[in-house]
Amino acid sequence: MCEQQKQVKCKIGPSILNADLSNLEGACVKMLDCGADYLHLDVMDGHFVPNLTFGHPLVKCLRPKWIEPMADAGADQYTFHIEATKDAPTLARKIKEAGMKVGIGIKPGTPVESVMPYADLADMILVMTVEPGFGGQKFMADMMPKVKYLREKFPDMDIEVDGGVGLSTIDACAKAGANMIVSGSAVVKAEDPQSVISQLRESVVRAL
Ligand SMILES: O=C(CO)[C@H](O)[C@H](O)COP(=O)(O)O
Ligand SMILES: [Fe+2]
Fold first, then answer.
1. Which of 8, 67, 107, 203 has the fewest CB atoms found within 10 Å of its own CB?
2. Binding-site positions
3. Residue environment code for 178-197, b if the CB has 16+ CB neighbours within 10 A, otherwise e
């Protein structure tokens, strides 16, 4: 398990975007067996991003398959992009009323300051480290100042990175202050996902 400093814990959440989509249940259970703390499901609508993935019915079907192993993980989290809504406070309230934690994500082109007015509505802030839409893209190291800025402002907040995060890029994320790590291809395509998850965790725990 991750060590804890203040209230911030290291959590590793594999993205199943690049997993074998013909066997999603198998992919999800495998990731949890390999030590994942949570699963990251990218709901894409073909409008906000140029890709279509899956919607709420699929999430609903998959959920019973991991509820047992994730019993300790706490409430589910629903992350929305700040750029995709004109009314973040109402959206955040509805997510909370539905019993979930609120995550607010920003795309690479969105200044970190734009999330600040809504930060106290959020349990987590997600800094995208690729242009959202596809797995397997190159990590954008120039997003790290956003993570650093957020960590300095919010020592106890969950700060997540997503996109191109793997063994060669985790140290930059960890040093900048990210504690929730989404990793897709680097984990699901690895020969030994358990080892990759544990190395990602070690990097974050070291930095915490
Ligand atoms: O949100 C995403 C893409 O929009 C994915 O979660 C992300 O890209 C994960 O995949 P990888 O680690 O392969 O980049
Ligand atoms: Fe994602």
1. 67
2. 15, 40, 42, 133-136, 162, 164, 184-185
3. bbbbbbbbbbbebeebeebb
| Structure token digits, residue 143 | 């997003």
Q: Tokens at residue 126, please?
A: 């997600």
Going 22 to 106 to 178 to 117, the CA torsion angle's sign is: negative
Tokens of residue 46, six digits? 């073909």
Ligand 1, from 16, 21, 42: best to mutate by most atoms within 8 Å of Cβ?
Answer: 42
Q: Is any atom of ligand 1 closer than 6 Å to the C-beta of 50? A: no
Say yes or no: CB of residue 136 within 6 Å of ligand 1. yes
147 C-alpha to ligand 1 centroid (Å): 17
Interface predicted TM-score (ipTM) of this complex, two decimals: 0.98
Can you give the pTM of this predicted structure? 0.93
pLDDT digit string (tens) for 39-58? Answer: 999 999 999 999 999 888 88
74: tokens are: 């706490």
The residue behind tokens 């919010």 is 154
List of residues 6+ apart from 101 with CB closer than 8 A: 74, 75, 76, 77, 78, 95, 123, 124
pLDDT of residue 74: 47
